[in-house]
Structures are given as C-alpha cells and as structure tokens.
Amino acid sequence: MTDRLDSFTRSQWIVIEDDAGIVRRAPFETLLFSIPIRVANGPDGPRIHRLDTGEALPVLRRYGYVWSALDPAPRPLFEVPEFDEAGRRFTPCGPVGVKTSALRVIENFLDLAHFPFVHPGILGTESETEVIPYRVEIRRDVDEVWAVDCGFFQPKAMAASSAGAQVEYRYRVAQPCSAVLYKTSPGRAGAFDLIGILVRPLHETACEVHAWMLMWDEESSDESLLQFQQEIFLQDRIILENQIPHLLPLSAGMEIPTRADATSIAYRRWLKNHGVIWGTCEGIPEVTA
Amino acid sequence: MILYEHVLSSDCYKLRLMFDLLGMDYERRPVDMYPGHADQKPAFRALSPFGRLPVLQDGNLTIWDAQAALLYIAERGDASSSWTARSVEERANIQTWLQVAGGPLRAVAAARARNLFGDASSEDGLLDVITIIDDRIVEQEIHGSEWLVSDRPTIADVAVFPDIALHEDAGISLDAYCGLRRWLGAFASLPGFAPMPGVASM
Ligand SMILES: [Fe+2]
C-alpha cells in the first residue's frame, strides 16, 4: 500500500496524539500510512519507531500535540500564531476513528453547504440554506488553500452562543490532512475563534481525527465545549462513512460536483498540483474503494 | 430530575429518549467521558460505583443503572402505564429484554466505542445478540405486533433501541435483519422521538 504514498504527503508532519493522550496511552501501537508504529513516552519526551524496520521517526511537539512523519526531514509545520495569544482557551477533543480517506474528512470540514442538512438547529437551519458567495485563494507564500468572507446564519454557532447569529467564517487548508476554521467569536467582539482538525491516515480509507478548539470563552464548561464539538463531529462521521467512494476523486468528471463547492474544487486542484496520490482515486482505474 | 450524561453514549440516549417520548423536562449535566475519562475518576465513582454513565438523580435518590433509571422515569412520568408492564406476564417479558439491554447488548456498545474511540474490547456474542433480537421481532410480527414485548411500545423497546439504532457506528450491517430494520423504523415514527448523531435516518 505504501507505494501509493506520494512524496508531498510523506513529507508532512502528521498528528499522533494530544499531550494528555500521550501521557495516558503511551506506550501504544498505532498506524501511520498503513505502517505500524510504536509510541513511547520517556523522561526526554515521546519516541516513535516504525515496527517494521525499527527506524526511529522524527518527533515534534507543538500546539498541544505530538507529531511525527515517515520522512526523516519533514516540511516545516504550518504556523498558527493564535496559539501564542494569552487568554485563549485550548481544548483538544480526543481522537475519533472514521472509516474513510483523511482527505474526505478535510473536504467535509470545508463544506459550508451541508450545515443545514447535517447539523440542523446547530450550525444551520433548513429555512436558510443559502451560502453567501465567498473568495477562495491559494496563498503562494505559505502554499495553503484559504476561503475568506464566508457568511452563514447559524442557530447555535458555538457552545457559548445564546441565540442565532450571522457568522463569518474563514477556512484554511494548512496541510493535505490539516485544516483550520476561523469563526466569529461569540465571546469577544471582532475576534475569531479557531476550530481545527488534524487527521492521521491509518490506511488510505481509515483515519483518526483529532479536533481542537482555541477560543475566547470563559463561560462554557469543558464538558459542554467538548460535547458540543463531539456531537457535531459524530453527525459528520456517519455521513462520511456512507459517502462513496471513500477515496477522494481529484480528476474532473469522476464525481458530479453538487456537493463540491468552490473550496472543495480548490482543495482537490491543490492536491492534484502537488501530486497527491494517497487517499485519492488517482491511479485507481475502476473506482470501487 | 438530573441526568449525568454524555452526548455520544447509547445508554444516556436511552434515558433522553424516554424523557422525550413522555414529554418530560429534565436537567442535563454533561460528564467528560471522552477524552477526559471523568466517568472513571473518584468524584464520579462516588455517584456511580462501576463508573458507568448515565446517572439519574431525583431528590435524594441516585440511580446508576441505565435500565433501572429507565424504569424509574417511565413509572414517574407515564400516568397511563403504557410504557411499563400491565400484567405479570408482561413484567416478566419486559424484565427479560431489560436484562438483554444491560447484558449481551453491551457487546454492540463496546464495538461502537472501539470504532469511535479505539477502546480495546471483546466482540464476543456481537452477532448472536443481534440475531436473537431480530428473531424476537419477527416472531412478534407473526403474532401481529411490531414491538418487543407487547402490542404497544414499552421500556423494553426503549432499552434495546439505542445500541441497535447506532449499529453503523459499531460497524454492523443490518441488511440481513429485516425485522430489526422495520422495528427501528416504527420506533423512529413514535411521537416525541429524537435522533442522536450516528442514528441513521430510517
Ligand atoms: Fe459538518
């Protein structure tokens, strides 16, 4: 299977676990691009080895997570300067397994149009399904996909929301398997709350999704923040597992782009331009995945 | 009444469903079962000795078993006694299916937890319990009822419904279980029914 691992995907830092999960679970065995790895925790921090070759893999600690890569010299990790802003509250939501391609999970995360249908009463309402036109851009300096000026009416945009609101969104694909959403903060005028997902491919059509929140919210309890986000993600999960094919089509014509909005089209094109194979339908003659 | 619960737990969904089906108000107190495992910590175990969600509190009474709490809600909130036993025979049958919900059916909840959260657990008896419940429904249908115990839905149906309805999360296909699929559809048509994430549309 790893012959389908393209160099762009291989050179990315991939999330392994959040800091608390490392402490609780290590040592443990898991998968990274179908390769079994072992994660241990010692006095000098986490150590990660391939179980097939015994090779030690690079380890990075950042943003409350432990990251690793199959490539001994991964590309620099994306920057999220908001992590350095004092007063923000960081909440990792714990890993959730999903049986589909990591890229499908990112694509779903970027899709505004599904809110009224998949998250009715929370992130959308069936009476207001219109997505306000927005701009999609490839930021060449950081090589990321951004969608800006997205607007949407949401009945309960965040755990701290007391009423429905017109919410502004910015989406950012920072890596093939990592995306960040910037969303009008109900807790601080003019500021954005951040919600991110980091996806670790276990296999091409199975992954582990780590969602996190970085917010201006002093009111909500940890429990209500977590369960708000987990409920939303579990609504997506059942849609994702039932979406066929599980691999993401990159070539035009392989999937009628009814769901695929401008961000999704830009994301797929960006992946294709980088020669991404892993988790896509590229090189698979008959789509049966 | 106060319900200590988690939004993704099938046993908690069971009690939320009973409240909804009876149109009762209750207070939800979320517990960080995941990722915090707060249900295993001493503070929660003081409420629930086995560290299991949900816990139902009513005044001085604390109930830490899902099936017992289900029965309590139904007996408190259902003046017509439609959801509980009306005869000795019904009580025996309802009790049987409550035991299934608290016993063999936990294998389905465990399979779901493993798929969602990667928790290690055993799959023993997974399809056995599905087949047995499906057989029961089909047998009931032959006798002209679409419900587990009686000609009307009872707490036995409420007790068994969540784990079966969340079968996709558990990685179980119900394609071969026509009785269960019809029963899920009938249950989802009940007035007051509310889905939870992972309950496929029926
Ligand atoms: Fe969604």
What does this structure look like?
Chain A is α+β, with helices and mostly antiparallel strands. Chain A folds into 2 domains: 1-77, N-terminal domain of TfIIb, CATH 2.20.25; 81-289, Naphthalene 1,2-dioxygenase Alpha Subunit, Chain A, domain 1 (Alpha-Beta Complex), CATH 3.90.380. Helix content of chain A is 20%, strand content 35%. In chain A, the strands form 3 sheets. Chain A has a 7-stranded antiparallel β-sheet with strand order 8-14-13-12-11-10-9, covered by helices on one side. A 4-stranded antiparallel β-sheet of chain A has the order 2-3-4-5. In chain A, strands 1-7-6 form a 3-stranded antiparallel β-sheet. In chain A, a hairpin with a 2-residue loop joins strand 11 (165-175) and strand 12 (178-184). Chain A is globular. The two termini of chain A are 13 Å apart. The mean pLDDT of chain A is 90. Chain B has 202 residues and is an alpha+beta fold. Chain B has helices spanning 10-21, 42-45, 66-77, 88-102, 106-117, 126-142, 155-165, 178-188, and strands at 2-5, 27-30, 55-58, 61-63. In chain B, 47% of the residues lie in helices and 7% in strands. Chain B is globular. The interface between A and B is medium-sized, with 28 and 22 residues. Fe (ii) ion (FE2) binds next to loops of chain A.
